Amino acid sequence: MNRVLIVDDEPHVIRVLNLALSRTGVAVDVAYNGINALEYLQTHQPDAVITDIDMPRMDGKTLCNRICDMYPDREFPIFIMTARAELEHRDWARNIPNLTFMEKPLSIRKLIKALSEHFPANSEH
Amino acid sequence: MKGDRLGLSMILASAIVIFIAFGIQTTHHIKTEVSHLRREAVSLSRSLSRTPYDQLVSHTKGNSVSSILMHGLDNSAFVYVSIVDPYGKPLMELSRPGISIPAVAPKALTSWFEERNLQLDELGDEIIEFNTPLINRGQVVGQIRLGYVKPAFTFNASDIPFFATIALAIFLLTPFFYLVVKREIRPLRKASDQMDKLIAQDTLSRIDISTSGELEEFMRHFSQYVDKALDRVQQLEGELTERETSGKLLSYKRMRIESVIQSLPDAVMVLDETGNVCFANIRFSTLLGVPVKDVMEKRIAEWCANQEMAAYLTDCSRRAGRNVSTNIREFTLGVSPKKDIAVMPCPLFSPRDPSHVLGTLVLIRDVTAQNLAKEGGGAFIAQVAHELKSPLNVISMYCETLQGGGDMTEAFFVEAANVIKDETERMTMLINNTLNLTKIEMGSININRSRVKLKDLLQDAFDTCERSDQAGDLEFKLDLPAEIGPVAVDKELMRIAINNLLTNAVKYSNQGGVISLSAEETDSSVRISVKDTGIGIDSGEVERIFEKFYRSDSSEVRKRVGHGMGLALAREIVQLHQGVLSVTSIPGKGSVFTIEFNKEADLLKLAG
Predict the structure, then answer these.
(1) Is-cis flag, bond preceding B337, omega within 30?
(2) At what angle do helices B566-576 and B410-442 cross, to 10 degrees?
(3) What pTM was computed for the model?
(4) Closest approach of chain A CAs to the CA of B421, in angstroms?
(5) Contacts of A34 in chain B (CB under 8 A)
(6) Architecture in CATH for domain B2-154
(7) Which residues contact A34 (CB under 8 A, 6 or more apart)?
């Protein structure tokens, strides 16, 4: 079973994503901010990370940078959700491999599709 | 004093006149005597000339003609007669006893009758000697010398009455003339006195005295002269005043222009034809950070740290007149704090000859704030969009999930409906708050004060909050005085401010928390407090919570829905009422937000 880490400070978003992803047969772990996520990542390696970009304490971009430091040969994808235009983060994103921008309002269908491209084995769920 | 001198002068003059008269008289007397002697000598000389030579030179005393003549003469002045040969040797001599005839050479005669002055040895008296040639048979054989005592000044008692008469006349005439002159010059004295007074008063005016005769004419001319002088003085004074006024006006205009240039919010610099700085205002030094004295008469490159700007200005100064386009270029000075400046060069054309360029006028404006405002405006819009996207995102996700159907529990439907409603409310509140805040910041909201019963307003807000869905199990306390006087506030705006405080109190309270709304009234002010027993605010964040979009990073805050606009708007509203919104808080214990505004001032304003 593929395991996904969702990082967001918005409980409703976590709630809906959790529901939607669970139904596709993905195990979901949750962190409410970047620091929580890093703590989780110390001990777990998920198959994908879905994170919001604007979060208290540690934002999504910093989290991504830290993940890159932590896993230099990372293979799992990161999906970053932003309400802002992607253009703004383009320069930063250039240095982060395997990163996908998901624009808010988030389309759950699109997210699941993108995820399924990364886990072909579990896509039948 | 002057009168005395005049009197003395007249007496002195009289004495001189008398003296002169006496002198003339004496001289005349002497001259008369001399001519009398001359006549006598002529007649005597003739008589002697006619006398035969032998008789004349006969040595027989007492019988000679001369002896007879000697005796016949009844003139005490006659002193001697001497007949001498051409060499001066006496041929015959007769003299008054005791007198020796001066032994002098015979006078060289050029005419028949001549005279000369001689000195007698014994007496030391002066004598006049008359000389006549002695002719015998057509030959000059000698000379006849006739000596007379030279008439001298002698005082004759007989002259006394004459002199006395003259003296009397003069002494009588002197005071008369004195009085007449004094009377004649009296107007002059008056005029002099008036002049003295005028000089003492340091003024110039006409002298008014009554005169007659020539003095009257003089005074008339003098007065005309003074009048002309007065006119001229008045004219000059007028011209002076005019010049002073125009000078003052010019100086005022110059000062005004200078003050305008100095007070301009923009820096002004003028470059001359050669590209040197010839003027810079005070703003220049504050904006560019270079003292004016350090740039005067210098090239731009010598003081301008920004090479790009120096090159641009030098180029503009060189091209001045050929290219009249005024390109505004922006440069950034310094690093921290950085300063954005807009530079606008314009060529200065000569007013007389527009083809001649006098130099370049450079206007420099600080556009830091403007640029920041632009950036700020952009950031604000981006922030609002972001804040709107967050609830939209949640709504959209719930909707998508609902659309997806499947084995959805009824509980999820209820949850979805509630979340969508909450998020919609959140968006509505954000939009309302944003619009209100923007309006206030832009100054386009008009504060509409009216006499408001504050107690009713607070009661309303309290009731609305207490009945709201979010109120949950919170305890609400209302502590209002029995009576609050009417206050002059904008009811709607004040309601928003109080609502925002109450909503925040509810939002950041924990279960079972207590929210109190209280009001106090003093003589001059009203204080409204909203107190909660919620999560409180860290001391480092107390001031920042009033910033737009500021939200604490604390998870306690983040798990509550908010967008960081409510307090910013509340503070703006309170400040519009010249009031103060303050907060005291203990983290974990709760916060007290207090609105305080001056009651009387507000009422006065309303009355005004």
Answers:
(1) yes
(2) 30
(3) 0.48
(4) 13
(5) none
(6) 2-Layer Sandwich (3.30)
(7) A7, A51, A55, A57, A58, A59, A60, A62, A63, A66
